[in-house]
Design brief:
Blueprint (H helix, E strand, L loop, with lengths): L25 H25 L8 E7 H7 L4 H4 L9 E6 L8 H6 L7 E12 L12 H10 L4 E10 L4 E7 L9 E3 L4 H8 L4
Antiparallel strand pairs: 1-2, 1-3, 3-4, 4-5, 5-6
Length: 203
């Protein structure tokens, strides 16, 4: 029996070769690429805030298409590099009108964005306690604040959330006790309620 290297393969062997774990269809590839862009964006925003230290007020950013910003301000092109020509790139623009005198949920409930804003990002710090501490917490706000501030197992955490008008989301978490860029956690569902509240500002 001989083999001819130039003979065509049987129909059963003419299958598309796929790599395990890598989506093959265009829509899945586009979704994966969009998720990676949000990962990069939330890391960039969290790192920007982290460089300024802890104990900051909440900060909110509008996300604009980079190409549209360059069209309005061509001088930005050199500073933005390859992103200037990327139609999918988003640039964060910090908003300075966040009212820190009101609870954040009230502020978000009254926040709306113009059509040209493609998404938003929110960065804030919170104190987390272990689940074992919940039963011993007082009901009054003053007493709660005091207990939380003095609790030996408290964890200061910075949360960064990015959402897009189309429903995309990504979150980042940095613990003060592990304050290093390579220790930042990133995922879509790390702080789902905060992401939902920010996404609601586009509805």
């Amino acid at each position: 029996m001989t083999s001819d290297d130039h003979s065509p393969l049987p129909d059963d062997d003419q299958a598309t070769v796929t790599v395990p774990g890598v989506p093959a269809d265009p829509e899945a590839l586009a979704a994966a690429a969009a998720a990676m862009r949000l990962v990069e964006l939330v890391r960039e925003i969290e790192k920007h805030v982290a460089d300024l230290g802890w104990d900051q007020n909440p900060r909110i950013f509008a996300l604009a298409r980079t190409s549209e910003l360059v069209a309005l301000e061509p001088a930005l092109a050199s500073a933005l590099g390859e992103a200037a020509a990327d139609p999918t790139s988003l640039t964060p623009i910090e908003q300075d009108h966040l009212d820190h005198s009101k609870p954040l949920d009230e502020v978000l409930a009254t926040t709306a964005w113009p059509d040209e804003v493609q998404g938003a990002a929110l960065v804030l710090e919170r104190v987390m306690l272990p689940p074992s501490a919940e039963d011993s917490l007082p009901d009054d706000q003053a007493g709660l604040a005091s207990v939380v501030a003095e609790h030996p197992e408290r964890q200061d955490v910075r949360m960064a959330v990015v959402v897009t008008r189309g429903g995309g989301r990504m979150c980042a978490l940095r613990l003060r006790s592990h304050d290093a860029d390579d220790q930042v956690l990133v995922g879509e569902q790390l702080v789902p309620r905060l992401a939902d509240a920010l996404l609601a500002t586009f509805r």
